[in-house]
Amino acid sequence: MAEANNTTVTLQVHRFTPRAERAERARGGSPFARKSSPFGGGSDSAARRPRGKQWVQEYTIPARPEDTVLDCLMTIKRTVDPTLAFRYSCGHGMCGSDAVSINGTPTLLCTAAIRDWAKQPGALPQVDDEGFRHIGDETADDNTNAEAEASADSTDDAAAHGGSLGVIELAPLPGFPPQRDLIADIDPMLNQIRKLTPYLEADGVLATTSEGKVDVFEYLQHPDQLAKYEMLSNCIACGVCEGSCPVFAGGDAFIGPAALIWSSRFINDSRDAKAMDRMDAIDTADGVAACQSVRACSRHCPRGIDVGEEMWQIVAKVRER
Amino acid sequence: MSPKRLEDMYDAVIVGAGAAGLSAALGLLRSPEIEDLRAQGVDPKILVVSKLQPLRSHTGSAEGGIAASLGNVESDDWHWHYYDTIKGGDWLVDQDAARLLAEYAPETVINLERQGVAFSRTEDGHIAQRRFGGHTRDFGGEPVKRAAYAADRIGHQILHTLWQQCVAQGVEFAEEWYVTDLVLADDGSQAAGIVALDTHAGKVQAVHARNVLIATGGAGRLFHTTSNSWDLTGDGMALALAAGLQLEDIEFVQFHPTGLAHTGILLSEAARAEGGVLRNADGEAFMERYAPEHRDLAARDVVSRSIMAEIDAGRGVADPKDPDGPKDCVWLDMTGIAPERMAEALPQVVETIEQYANLDPAKDWVPIKPTAHYTMGGIPITTDGEVYRWNESDDSDLANAHPEWLIDGVLPPSRTLGDRVVVDGLFAAGECSCVSVHGANRLGGNSLLDACLFGTRAGRTMAARIAENPVDSPMADDSTDDALIEAADQAKFRRATELADLLAGNTDISGDSDGDSDAEAASANGNPYELMARLGSLMDRALAVRCNAESIVAASDQLDSTFRPAAEALRAHSDTAAFNQEITAIWEVRHLVELAGAVLAASGARKESRGAMYRTDHPERDDERFLAHSMIRLLSPEERDRLHDEIAKAGQDEPAPVFAAHPISWQPVHITDYPPKKREY
Question: Which one of A22, A158, B208, B346 is separated from B592 by 20 to 30 angstroms, measured CA to CA?
Fold first, then answer.
């Protein structure tokens, strides 16, 4: 993909290598290790907070504006550094494996084009002397920022930007414990989804045949009934909305937008017989009441679900029942 | 999610969590046998192992539909579906299996609907159906609307629904565990479990099980241009080869005609079903010349070959993203589809084109190129999902009894006989398996159907076996378990030693050194990702859409001389075992290399053109000699040593026999209702 061109991109990757397991176990034995938190402390995410080596690594590789960030990371694996860890599978936005933070914004690696995300270093928001950064989405610390500028500057002179398309910063999905490099532990999200009985509960028994003849039929559902939940059923559980949500942080305070989208998917399905039970289950302090309508969850949903609006709809529905 | 603690023995372990694996788990748990057991208080011990997180399996990328003669939109008959499947497969289809597929397709689709799949609907609320290539009425007549669909996201809907139902059933998963060994006991006659790398902990685990089901999907990553996800590295097939089992018809790989130019990303057949037309560089709708009746909706292999013929005749176009590159694409013209219809029926296709080609299909023609899509062959199974070995009868006896069968003095593959010997407790389902409903070429809409239907059947067969002697039963007979446990633990020990070796062989480059020395260090131990890319190019050149003896032998030589040693030399570049993706990639590329060898050897042995396989040196179908399933295996290490000795003894004058490391035998095709005819569209 990137052979026949001479533009480059620089990826600043927040890396992390977990410490070997033996050390972890030793810490687990410490009498001071697991003090309960005043804020509930039911989650095991704190206990699993990983320890290890953290650093920011820069890779400058050939790339074209239309390449995706995933294309670039694959090039890095193939040609520079096979140790760089990140999840990926289908490569075209359907499997939901590759949610990360790009320039501070949760989104999928495989749908993010270089032309949309690379920034010339001058355009990066600067961190001021006290370590605060101005409006924007940049999280690099002083050192790496300086390095980024230096390395980009050195190539700048050849042409307008010396063929450099700019810099992209990559970090694991926020809100979840990092496991290695760009891999985060999204099990908390999946567990919350599981908690809300995420399966159709209709009233019928499954179809059977006698002598090859179909003797029962599908549940009828009209296109307008389908339209009530079809968009919700497209959720791929990537975690982008959760990583964007300022209330969600591993799940103690808020069951999270993804689990509520899944619940709403069944509440709005005309075939489901448990809508009332489902609404009871999310009418809790950490359920719909925790949503503060920030609507950051809508911004980068790869399936185009207006998560914030859907949350608003389900909150209203729960209240009205 | 990983199990908190592994059981000492499982009733069944299922490898793979796509449509086939999950259907098997559900078929098993919902069977009357297991319901009985549960009523007695005996819970079956089941574990589903997947190398991916939940909901990431490639089933989720299937776009177009699942075929069933529901007759919701126009009248249909399962016999027509049955016939179309056989004809689509160029008569290399076991008709008993295809009959089950067509007959139980409506039940399968309706069961999916009742479990929650959000199918698109007709105005009266029934499951909507659309046309799909090769599906006809009246045994090869007019096209019929047979593919049930959910916009263009049927795979996503099915995958999610099956997973949701598994949550309801409380199925236990081991996620992001990569299976490295399929373990057999008792001289290979019985399944004993698996060995897997828990990628989170970076630890090798033995999972002991009385029943094992392999449902790992296809092997599209054998090729560079593929619609398959990065994870479809033929693991299950390679595991079977390594365990001394055979693969059936593995030479048949379907190339989907409409991959989005050089990305390989699939544009669903639905794009043509809804009115998209293929055009060459002159703007001509060329499919009219190749398939006058069905044109752009002819079977996939016909369309792929027609595209390649246009490209070979100089009427191809370059990918607009690479205007100076090779003219190896043609156009897909969707401008005739009404924009509202496009948005309603093809949202995913439109999104993919906008996202990855930067084009507007309502206005622009879209560059497309055939892309490796589906492996028709795989681990041989019975219609109940049991893996078997094919024991070919002695040729010379048959030759003596039937001298009239000989062609040029030898018994042709089509005349061989033998019997199937089932491996106790070993099952397979889905794309990695071959029950032989797809024959030489799969029809669109039949893959999800195969995975769900035969996955469910395999699950039910396992349930019956489990009920005979459940692990958890107080009266359980565990007298044979020791042999299984020992076999699995030995395999685990070998694999753990290898893992330590792979990790230790590193030069750590993950530090802060500059790029140049990183690259050098990377090349010192080899790079599995780079090797995988080169292997894909090799296989593209040798086999994509067409091949011949020359291309096959050349690739095979290179595989042996370059790729196999390179794969063996690979070592990891980081010694941290947890989440070490490179370790998985090393094992994946070794799997691919072994599988590539088998695919090339089987391709070399089939000296005819049939379905998806087109040999330029044998351009005609040859029923007289090759109406038979190829059954290929690897030589065992002992056999290989013996072979090398023989080659050494034969000396320099004798050229080494080609493909000698892959003994091949042939199995007759089950033909019960429809005798072979010429396949025309």
Answer: B208
